[in-house]
Amino acid sequence: MAGGGGTGGGVSASTYAGLRYWLLLPSWLVLGFIVLAPVGVMLIYSFLTKEFRGGVIWEFTLDAYDQFFFDRGLFGDEPPKIEWTYILIFWRSIWQAGAATLLALVIGFPTAYFIATRPERVRPIWVFLITIPYWVNLLIRTVSMKFLLRDQGPLNDFLIWTGLIDTPIHVINTDVAVQIGLFYSYLPFMVLPIYAAVERYDFALSEAAADLYATKWVALRRVLLPSVRPGVIAGCILVYVPSLGAFLAPDLLGGAKNFMIGSLIEEQFKGNAGNWPFGAAASMILLTMVMIILLLFARQQARAEREG
Amino acid sequence: MQDNATYAVDIRSAVKRFGSFTALDRVSLSIRDNEFFTLLGPSGCGKTTLLRLIAGFEDVTEGEILLFGEEIETLPPHQRPVNTVFQNYALFPKMTVEENVMFGVEMRGARRSEARRRAGEMLELVRLERFAGRRPAQLSGGQQQRVALARALAPQPKVLLLDEPLSALDLKLRKAMQMELKSIQRETGITFIFVTHDQEEALTMSDRIAVMSEGRVQQMGEAREIYERPHNMFVADFIGDTNLLDVTVDRIEDGRAICHIGGGHVLTCDAVDGIGAGAQVHMSIRPERLVLSDEALGAESLAGTVVDNVFIGTDIQSMIQLENGPRFAVRTSNSDRGARRIFAPGAQAFVNAEPGAARLLID
Ligand SMILES: Nc1ncnc2c1ncn2[C@@H]1O[C@H](COP(=O)(O)OP(=O)(O)OP(=O)(O)O)[C@@H](O)[C@H]1O
Ligand SMILES: [Mg+2]
C-alpha cells in the first residue's frame, strides 16, 4: 500500500480515502451481520413449514402469511375468508402505540423544556433523575406499575383518601392501563431527544419573537417548535416503534383481551405451543409496517423542509 | 419643568447588576420623541444591556424606566411598542426572509396579505426584494443584518432600538444605509435609539449622543458639542483624534487658564470650573484646529520640528516635535493646500492653535 511511510504527511487524499474505506470494513461487517442476519433468518423462517413442537421444517410454503390474512376453516378446506383476528390485533397495536406516544409527547415535551431551561450546571442532574428508574429491569418496572394501578393499589387508595373519588377507578386490564404502561416504559426516549434539541435552541429567537409582539405561546408554537421539530420527531419514533412491538406492558397490564402484536409474536416462540413461521411472518409484517411509517415520516419531513 | 410624556424613553438612575458585577451604574437618559439618539461606547460598556432593559428582556436592579411617561416595569416585552434590531440579528431560521419580516406585522393583527405587502415594502427599502424567498442561512452577514432591520421596522414601532445594525456592512453600503436610516427616521418620526462603537457614524447620524464607558454615561449632548467640548479625557480620546497633553495650570486670569505644557511652552485656554492654579490636568486640542506656519504668528506660536507627514485621504497629518516638549499632530486639509503650506520632514515650523481649540478636561 502506498504512502504509509512518507515523511511530512505524504499520503495523498485519494490514498487516504481508500485507507479509510478499508479501516471501516470491520465495522460494516459487524453492523451488516447484526442488523441483516437476524432479519434474514426471520424472513426465511416465515416461508418455511411449522414443526409442531416449535422450530421449522425446511419446506417452502406461504402458509404463515396465508394464516395471517385468511380464514380457511378449521380443516383448511373451506373457501378463504378474510381473517380479522390478527388484523384487529395489529390495528389495536397501532392505536395503542399511538396513544402512548401522544401521552409521552404531552408529558415529555414540557419535561424536556423544563430541563433544558435550567442552569447549565444542574441539567445533567435532572437528566440523571429522569433516567434513574430505567436502570431497573423493564419487567420489574411493569410489575410495579401493575401494583400501583390495581383497584386496591396505592393510587386508588390515595384518591379515595383524598375524597376525589369514592370507588376505585378500574384501570388494570383496560386499554388505558396498556397506554400508561407503554408511556412509562419509553418516556426517556421522548424526553432525551427533545431535551437535546431544546438545549441547542437559541433562546434569543424567543426574545426576538416577544420583541415582535408574540405572546409566549405563539413564540413557542411558531419559533421554538419548528426549530426543535427534528428532536420531537425522533422522540416520537423512538417511543412509537418499540411500543408497537411491546409485549410486557400489554401482557401484564392489559390482560388477555388487550392482546398486541408483541404478545402475539412472543407467544409463537414460547414453549411448545408456538408456530415459528407464523411468528416470523407476523414479525415481517410488523417490520414492513414500521418501515412504511418511517418512510412516510421522512417524506413528510423532506417536504416540510422544502416548503419551509 | 418638562412634561414626562414628551420623552419617548426616560431612564432614571437605572442600575443593572449581574451578580456582583455592575453593568450599568446610575444611568439617566431622557430621550425625546422623534429623536435620533445614539449610545456610543467601547465594547462591554453596557450598550446592549441598556437596550435590553428598554425592550424588557432584563429588569433594572434599581431605578426606573418610563416609556412615553408610563412605568414599563410590569409590561412584558411583547406589549411594549418597541422593536429591536438585535446585534446578532436573531432571525428566525425556519422562516423565509419574507416570513421573518411579516412576523411582527401579523402579530399586531394585520391580515396576511397586508403583512406581505408591508414586508415587500421593507425589503425593497433594504434592497433585498430578490431574496424574499430565501432562508436566513442562505444570506451573507450583511444581508442578514438588513433583514433584521426590515423586520424591526415593519410593525412601525414607536421606538426602534438598533444594536450596531450596520456593523457587518462594507463601507459603501454602510454609508448608503446610514443615509437611508436617517431619512427613514425623519419620515416616520420613530424614535431611534442607535448603538454603535463607531464615533464617526455617531457624529454623522445623531441628533444627540450619549457617550458611555464602564456602565456610565460620560457625556450627553449634540454631536458638535460632544466633539468640540468634551468633558473628560475619555470622551476627548474616544471621539475623533485629538492631541492629549499633560499640563500644569499656572494661574487663572480673566476666565483664562494659563498652562505649562512642558519644555517651557505655554498655552492659554478657557478656564473650567473646578480646575484652579497648580492643578495637573489634561488638555485636548483637535489636530484639524491647529495650523502650521514658518514664523511665529503670535505669543503662543510653538516652535518645533516636522517629524513626519502622513497622507490620509482628504487630509495630510503632520507630526511636530516641540523642543523638550510634547508632540503635536496637525491636520491640513488637502483642499487648503493652496493656502497652507506642507512642511517637509526636518523643517522648522510653528504650531498655532485656533481660538477655542484648546480645552481643559475634568479628569
Ligand atoms: N447576562 C449577563 N451576565 C453577566 N454579565 C453580563 C451579562 N450580560 C452582559 N454582561 C456584562 O455586562 C457588560 C456590558 O455588556 P453589554 O453586552 O451591554 O456590552 P456592549 O456595550 O453591548 O458591548 P459590545 O459593543 O461588545 O456589544 C459586559 O462586561 C458583559 O460581560
Ligand atoms: Mg452589544
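The pocket of adenosine-5'-triphosphate (ligand 1) is lined by residues B 18, 21, 23, 41, 43-49, 87, 197 (CB under 6 Å).
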